[in-house]
Each structure stands twice: as structure tokens, then as C-alpha cells.
Amino acid sequence: AAGVIQSPRHLIKEKRETATLKCYPIPRHDTVYWYQQGPGQDPQFLISFYEKMQSDKGSIPDRFSAQQFSDYHSELNMSSLELGDSALYFCASRRLGGSRETQYFGPGTRLLVL
Amino acid sequence: QKEVEQNSGPLSVPEGAIASLNCTYSDRGSQSFFWYRQYSGKSPELIMSIYSNGDKEDGRFTAQLNKASQYVSLLIRDSQPSDSATYLCAVKEEYGNKLVFGAGTILRVKS
Fold it and tell me: Tell me: the pLDDT tens digits for B2-42?
């Protein structure tokens, strides 16, 4: 079965640079979630989109922005990168009306800021 | 205080034993509860979901939910070394779409 696709899988950036992470949800899934997981931490919710509109917002820094496109893929744009942004970034997708609220996670993008 | 609490472990059990993982949550209105398994450096993988009080069984896994006590647990029967991972309890709060995760419990199954 098709899963959530994330790209790139690994990314190395320097401080103050920008990064764009991409997420392609499972086909027919209409909701996308972004999570950040630091070393030894649990995933922290950043932001979610349903039908291309922001549906919920968590602890996403103002330096970050995200959007969902007409094909339901989503991009997380990160600017003025800081060392503390080094983390695993997961995208999860869900189909409204599907098996009750279940979110399926992608493989993640490992971001290292030097 | 975290909204979802788990004992960080590590919880060590011998191969073939039952592993019991526990989780408490603070949002009394929560209706959806999930257990994810996460291997180091990998993404969380859904193990079980539960929405109603009582037990839900799926193979070697049993999830238990007690909304009055705001408590959810995961039992793993016949534990295998491949079950060694971090188990994340996740709760969808009453309002909103996001999942709130516990810090995770590290499980080690010794052969």
C-alpha cells in the first residue's frame, strides 16, 4: 500500500539558511500534519492542513510557514535556520471520514543545522 | 505537567513475557487514543487505536481504555526482541486535529 512520502530524507544546512521540506500524503488523504521531533523528544505538533486550508496550529515558529497545494501535497518552509531546528520532521496524513482520526506517518526528514 | 504522561522506562522484560505499557492523559474530553511504535531514527508506526472503554485486541497486542480514570494501556503478549522500541501514547484532544504525544516508553525485550 502507498505510504506518505517525504523529501528530502536528509538535509544539511547552515545557520540563517532556508530549507523546504515536502510531503506527499497517502492517495485520497485530504489532511496533512507536520511534527518536529528533537533528539530524545516526543513528536511536537507544528501545523495541519485540511483541503488546502490551515486547520490547526501548534508550536510552529514564526520563521516557519507551510501550505497545502491543490494536489494535497504540503511544503514546510523554514527560514533563518537555527541550530535548535536540527530535528526529525515528520509529515502525517489522514483521510477525513477514514478510520477515525488515524494519522499515518511518513519516514521523516532529518534536518541538521550547522 | 505534560498533557500525556508515560513512564520513560526502560522497561525490560524477558522474551515470551507480557509487557505492560501505561499512559495517562489530562484532557477529559479526549475521545481517540493511539499507540505508536518507533524504532530509533524511524517514523512512528501505528500499533493500535482505541475509542471506547474496555479492551481491544489485535494479535499479540491489547489496548485498554478507562476514560473515567483517564488511563490507557498497551499489553504485548509473548514479547519478542523485535518488539524492542519506544512506544508512544498519543491522544487526540477533544477540540482540534492534532495528536498530543507522551514522551514514550522504551521497551527492551531480552532474549
Answer: 699 998 889 999 999 999 999 999 988 888 999 999 999 89
The grid coordinates listed for A73 are 501535497
SS3 B105: strand
Q: Across-strand partners of B64?
A: B55, B73
CA-to-CA distance for B45 and B13, rounded, in angstroms?
21
Whether residue A98 has pLDDT greater than 60: no
- By C-alpha distance, the chain B residue nearest A46 is B98
SS3 state at B84:
coil
Q: Among all chains, which residue has been given the C-alpha cell 504525544?
A: B101
Cβ distance B100 to B5 under 8 Å? Answer: no
Q: Tell me which DSSP letter residue A11 carries.
A: E
A107 touches chain B (CB under 8 A): yes
Average pLDDT, chain B: 93
Across the range B41-60, mean pLDDT stands at: 94
Is residue A1 predicted with pLDDT exceeding 90? no
Work out the minimum CA distance from A57 to partner chain B, whole angstroms.
8
A72, exposed or middle or buried, with CB in 10 Å at 0-12, 13-18, 19+? buried
